[in-house]
Each structure stands twice: as C-alpha cells, then as structure tokens.
Specification:
single chain; 224 residues; alpha/beta; Rossmann fold; eight-stranded mixed beta sheet
C-alpha cells in the first residue's frame, strides 16, 4: 500500500503482481480493500491495482463540492494510469466505480483493453433522496451523493454512447441485486461484444458475497 500524486490529489492504492495491468474501482462508501479477494487471486498472473477514489479511504478528500463530478472521477482514473506509466489496462468498476470505468472506455478506448461493469445502477438517482441522505451522512461522502450520484446521467438516456463502446465488456450482477438487474441487462444488450454473467448467491455486493464465483468469471474473461 502506498500513496501517489494524481494531479493535485494524493491517491492511496495497492499495487501488486506483474503482467497485464488490471485496475479495480470500488463503489460508494467502500474502498480499495473491497477487492482483497480478487487482488489475492489474480496477482500471480496480472499486475493488479486498486485505489481509493477521492473522498474515500486514505485518498485526499477536497473540501469544495465543485471538485466532485462524474467527469472528475474519469479524469482521476486517467491520471492514475498516467502517474503509474500505464498506457492501457483492463478496468473493473463496481457500482459507483462503473461510472469512471465506462467513462474512460468511451472517451479514451485506446487506454482500455477490457471493460468489466459489476452491479452498476442505472443512474439519475432521485435528487431529493440524495439530499436527504446527505444531511444524515458526515464528511465528504456528502459531495459524492449530491455532486456525482444525484447528477449522473441515466444509462437509459445513454444508449447511443453505450453502442459506441469499442472494447470487449463483461457485465456482472448479483442474482439478487434487484436494484441493478435491469440496468445490467441494458448494458449487456446495448454494448457491442458484451457478455452478461449472473452471480449466484449474491446481492449488490457480489465481489464480497460470492468472491469465488465472481473472481472465476472475471479471470475467465481476462484470459480470453
């Protein structure tokens, strides 16, 4: 575990193994530690990197809400690759982390070998609900709620963008993730060359609830 500078943001990450790089992006109120099982299983064949997104874990949390946006998370991801000297990588995004993963695949497809979107919601969450939650949450996660989740564009309004994804994609969702099941089918049906995998005995936290099956499906996809 160490910390590197990505632009003006001190970013905490775990970096292990050698070989083709695989970047793991966590979800809301999680952190890089959620990828423990996948990092341990894959580090013998890949260079595996998991980082804390801004406002999470040990990464810096800017105080200004203007420093939080969906596009900023994409820039953070691209900046991380630059700081590590990685030209191209496979990107695995879970839930909130699916936004920057998809954003990089669309805006800079030459930097993405393979795209994995796990338990990613449709977006365009209820702004009033997010504001209600923000009043009850402390710290900089409020900014994630109000400036990112509440303002991200719905996947159902992004079908043209999704059809333009040029990289192989794997869509995974817990079989009991009732919130993300519809959006998973949308992603799989709309992104060219996308494959959908349902993770049995798992809800929204599929990488943690059934890490064995999740990792096996991920590893099979990366090895293609």
């Amino acid at each position: 575990m160490h910390k590197i500078q990505v632009g003006n943001l001190g970013t905490s990450l775990d970096d292990a193994g050698t070989g083709e790089p695989v970047i793991f992006i966590h979800g809301l109120a999680c952190g890089k530690r959620m990828w423990f099982h996948q990092m341990r299983a894959l580090r013998g064949r890949y260079r595996v990197i998991a980082y804390d997104q801004r406002g999470h874990g040990l990464t810096d949390a800017p105080a200004d809400p203007k420093d939080y946006s969906p596009s900023q998370l994409v820039r953070d991801l691209a900046g991380l690759l630059d700081a590590l000297g990685i030209a191209r990588a496979s990107i695995v995004g879970f839930s909130l982390g699916g936004g920057p993963a998809l954003g990089l695949a669309v805006s800079a497809p030459h930097r993405v070998c393979r795209l994995v979107l796990a338990d990613v919601g449709a977006g365009a969450d209820d702004m009033w609900k997010s504001q209600w939650l923000a009043r009850r949450w402390t710290g900089f996660l409020r900014h994630i709620l109000t400036e990112i989740l509440a303002k991200r564009k719905s996947l159902f309004r992004m079908t043209t963008v999704l059809r333009a994804v040029q990289v192989p994609a794997l869509i995974m969702v817990g079989r009991h993730d009732n919130v993300c099941r519809v959006s998973a089918h949308l992603l799989a049906d709309t992104i060219p060359n996308a494959t959908l995998e349902l993770i049995d005995n798992a809800g929204h936290m599929a990488p943690l609830e059934n890490p064995g099956l999740f990792t096996a499906r991920l590893e099979s996809f990366l090895a293609r």
